[in-house]
């Protein structure tokens, strides 16, 4: 074999959120890495909503950052508004979200990638994966006929594989608006025995913000004390410096205009045959499925600091352009609005994720890794965390090291990948806090305490990040010990306790016995107890470290219970199942259990128990079989 170009350790196909994290991780772990993208000017492009984070998604971004990824840093550098969602609920539900400057985000991702000396770029279209007779990937072929060789290949194709864009009765090939589809990879992989499918996603129209009547909309400000995504970020824009978002509503009149275009809608006339995201439906799907509702909430969000283009969140649609336009102008506040770009739907190929291992390597072809929407997920955050893990494991495979697999009790990333591999997906997968059975352990505030040590051990966390982590960890440990030993006296606290309507103290007790009262906060205790405040300030003045201690004390019982559950599950997780076990020959298994186990081929007993359709009795049969 010969090639015009030198060999690489890792080739990453695609430059979206998954591709950017995969390429950054592999290259920063010492791999000579090549990113191939059809358009290098679109690296890190926010194709849909210019925002990162949200419920459970914010946890993913903080975990990416804690391990040493780039999404969190760039989000902080480019955010125009920051909000912590679900503050009224418990800390397991708190989720950071940031509205980003779309163009600046892509620019900063490019800058992050170009700063890595071992990362190289090529603008081209990959049409074929090179796979030898041993079923090992060893490179790619581009549309220009170039063969480029590598030890591992990571495919992060997004919505580009045979992408088809729909606007009303019109459709055309494309990976996103203004960019053509990618052809060849699906057919190459199907020839190797891979199973493929089709999914759909969509995006709303973009509007001219100068033509909106904001007096008729509700204003939505950012947080007064914004929380960063990256553990390396020290400063974010103040509330006065952040841009505002706006809230509007549809109406029965708007719905009537939209219904008038249903006969020309690709969703209803059969042009779109694939499944879209259940939890982010199009506006036509919402008014069809929820016909009893007379309005739906819309969020008007800025696209950046220096543009008047606006994103209308909640109005994703593939209706004909004239229907979109007329419906928009029926919404209060949008009577004179100008549409810059119409909304559209896009169908694309994906590969059901039971075909990958939990290290993101495919089961059929060695050294070939999938990440992002090719695995059936939706969302930048879900794609980015898969890309990070694929890049890490591609690098470790090349170096001859063991795989890195995060468990469900270690990270939301572990939950996501475990769900994909074990349960598969027939609709675009989106992360939610409800998917994580250990969510009190997997909070956004402790992502670094959970994962930065791992990032350091695999060579991804920078020295600066590791130094910050160790200081924060040591400060929190010192605070926890100090608080735990501190005696609380009635003469110091009783006036505060009485004002809060909670029982005053009759004797001196230890701090942990008082802080657990729901009426009382750590900030109030520090304000009342000067001795306690002085002890704390001698260790740190960090609000996030104090908040971490408060959470650990207030939820100590729940946290310990989940640790115990996680430890029990870990025992099953480490019970390995041989690679070549033939489930068809285990006749005591149920028919469904046998089929599901044969399809997924779980690596451990714990993983087998999480496969939909595998019963507790199936698990018992399997454990007896393995023992014998």
Task: Please give a handful of descriptors for the protein shown.
628 residues, alpha+beta, 7-stranded mixed beta sheet, 6-stranded antiparallel beta sheet, 21 helices, 17% strand
Describe the structure.
The protein has 21 helices and 22 strands. It is globular and about 80 Å long. Helix 1 links the parallel strand 1 and strand 2. The strands form five sheets. Strands 1, 2, 6, 7, 8, 9 and 20 form a seven-stranded mixed sheet that branches. With 628 residues, it is of the alpha+beta class.
Could you say which overall geometry the principal axes of the C-alpha atoms support?
globular
Rg, nearest Å: 26 Å
Rounded mean pLDDT is: 94
This entry's quaternary arrangement is single chain
The count of helical stretches stands at 21
Structural class: alpha+beta
Stretches where pLDDT falls below 50 for ≥5 residues? none
Query: Main beta sheet: strand number and arrangement?
Result: 7 strands, mixed
Number of strands: 22
Helical content (DSSP H or I, runs of 4+) = 25-40%
Indicate the proportion of strand residues: 15-25%
Question: In angstroms, what separates the terminal alpha carbons?
Answer: 48 Å
Could you provide a short overview of the structure?
By secondary structure, the protein is an alpha+beta fold. It has 21 helices and 22 strands. The chain is globular.
């Amino acid at each position: 074999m010969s090639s015009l170009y030198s060999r690489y350790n890792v080739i990453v196909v695609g430059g979206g959120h998954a591709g950017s994290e995969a390429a950054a991780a592999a290259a920063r772990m010492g791999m000579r890495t090549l990113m191939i993208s059809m358009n290098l000017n679109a690296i890190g492009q926010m194709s849909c909503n210019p925002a990162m984070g949200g419920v459970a998604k914010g946890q993913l971004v903080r975990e990416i950052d804690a391990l040493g990824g780039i999404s969190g840093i760039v989000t902080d550098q480019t955010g125009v508004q920051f909000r912590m969602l679900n503050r009224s609920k418990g800390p397991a539900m708190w989720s950071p979200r940031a509205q980003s400057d779309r163009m600046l985000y892509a620019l900063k991702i490019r800058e992050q990638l170009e700063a890595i000396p071992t990362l190289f770029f090529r603008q081209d279209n990959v049409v074929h994966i090179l796979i030898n007779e041993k079923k090992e990937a060893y490179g790619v072929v581009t549309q220009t006929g170039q063969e480029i060789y590598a030890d591992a290949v990571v495919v992060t194709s997004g919505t580009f594989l045979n992408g088809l864009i729909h606007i009303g009765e019109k459709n055309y090939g494309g990976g996103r608006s203004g960019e053509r589809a990618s052809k060849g990879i699906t057919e190459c992989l199907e020839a190797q025995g891979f199973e493929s499918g089709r999914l759909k996603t969509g995006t709303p129209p973009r509007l001219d913000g100068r033509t909106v009547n904001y007096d008729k909309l509700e204003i939505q400000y950012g947080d007064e004390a914004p929380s960063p995504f990256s553990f390396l970020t020290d400063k974010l824009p103040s509330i006065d410096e952040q841009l505002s978002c706006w809230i509007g509503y549809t109406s029965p009149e708007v719905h009537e205009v939209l219904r008038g275009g249903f006969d020309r809608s690709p969703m209803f006339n059969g042009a779109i045959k694939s499944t879209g995201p259940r939890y982010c439906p199009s506006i036509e799907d919402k008014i069809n499925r929820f016909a009893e509702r007379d309005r739906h909430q819309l969020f008007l969000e800025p696209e950046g600091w220096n543009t008047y283009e606006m994103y209308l969140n909640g109005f994703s649609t593939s209706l004909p352009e004239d229907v979109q336009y007329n419906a928009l102008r029926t919404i209060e506040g949008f009577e004179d609005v100008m549409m810059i770009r119409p909304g559209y739907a896009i169908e694309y190929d994906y590969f059901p994720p039971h075909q990958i291992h939990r290290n993101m390597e495919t089961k059929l072809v060695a050294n070939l890794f999938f990440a992002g929407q090719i695995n059936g997920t939706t969302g930048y955050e879900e794609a980015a965390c898969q890309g990070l893990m694929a890049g890490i494991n591609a690098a470790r495979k090349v170096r001859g090291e063991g795989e890195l697999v995060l468990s469900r009790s270690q990270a939301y990333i572990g939950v996501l990948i475990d769900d994909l591999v074990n349960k598969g997906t027939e609709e675009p997968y989106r992360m939610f806090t409800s998917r994580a059975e250990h969510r009190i352990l997997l909070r956004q505030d402790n992502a670094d305490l959970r994962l930065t040590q791992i990032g350091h051990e695999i060579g991804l966390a920078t020295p600066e990040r590791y130094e910050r982590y160790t200081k924060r960890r040591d400060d929190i440990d010192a605070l926890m010990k100090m608080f735990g030993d501190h005696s609380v006296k009635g003469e110091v606290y009783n006036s505060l306790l009485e004002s809060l309507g909670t029982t005053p103290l009759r004797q001196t007790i230890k701090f942990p016995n008082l802080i657990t009262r729901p009426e009382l906060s750590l900030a109030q205790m520090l304000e009342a107890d000067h001795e306690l405040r002085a002890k704390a300030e001698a260790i740190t003045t960090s609000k996030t470290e104090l908040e971490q201690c408060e959470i650990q004390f207030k939820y100590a019982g729940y946290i310990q219970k989940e640790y115990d559950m996680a430890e029990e599950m870990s025992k099953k997780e480490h019970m390995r199942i041989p690679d070549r076990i033939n489930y068809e020959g285990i006749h005591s298994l149920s028919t469904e259990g046998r089929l599901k186990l044969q399809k997924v081929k779980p690596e451990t007993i714990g993983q087998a128990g999480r496969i939909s359709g595998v019963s507790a009795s199936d698990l018992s049969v399997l454990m007896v079989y393995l023992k014998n």
